[in-house]
Amino acid sequence: MTENAYCFCTAVYGSQYLKLARLLVEDLSKFSPDSKLIIVTNQPDFFKDQSNVIAIKHRCRGVEPHHERRFAINYGLSIAESVIVIDSDVRILSPLPPDLKFNPGIAAKSCGSLQKHMQDRLQKPSKQKLRKQQIVHQMAKHVGVDMSSPDLKFINEFLFAVTRDQGREQDFLNLWGELAIYADTLGMHRHPTYAMALAAHKTSFPVYKDDMPGLNFFDDRVIKWNIEHGKAELTPQLEALFKQQAEIENGQRSILPRIKRKLGKIMSKRIAIPYNRARVQLTQAISPSSLTAYSKADIESSCRS
Prior knowledge:
305 residues; 10 helices; 11 strands
């Protein structure tokens, strides 16, 4: 495969996110036709007709799939200098600049002090928030990171880029994986930003804010916040994007689909998550490398270059 300056990557699990990712695939085909999108998913056949996609069959290693994008990043760095990591429900709205380039390390569209982030979250403390903070401190202790360090960065996960840095990128990915599984065993299955922040700090992998000029995107949470705070206006284009995403996320509004979705959430909380946590804890005790090792990608897509 010919190496490019950058590629995109994401992780996609569940029918809703498969449909949303299809829109992202179409955006990139239109606005960045020379870029590949690496997707780790348990349903690679869903993307088999997309020429700009490399879909990798991937069994979720953790309790939930929030940390699985690290496997897509690992593969992406084997074919490109930089990997732009993007949530599957984000949209690209205009052509990407041909000279888009990143410095070594993690370039985040939105990032800041991890200390401030955690303090802000505790302004209205709850049992759940306090437990999360305790787990993050346990994670830091596990890898020997001082949580009082002002150099620790909070990374907003919806859009960031990872660029090679003389091998430190692999050290970062390895430690991220170790911390992801450790957090799973402690009961925190989401919020990969904490594992990323600790891993980057421990491995001296730089983290910096990058406005990514020319990368015009739509993320419903970011755009809603900007509109509410007077930083953006609700244009007909944005209104159409909100509507399109809501139709996919909400589906049909009849009573049966709503009941089915609710039952699915209950089953996940009461059965799937406890089962997966037990699986991770057992596997961590018997064969930890099977949860963290970056094996050769099983490429299901016919997309090659």
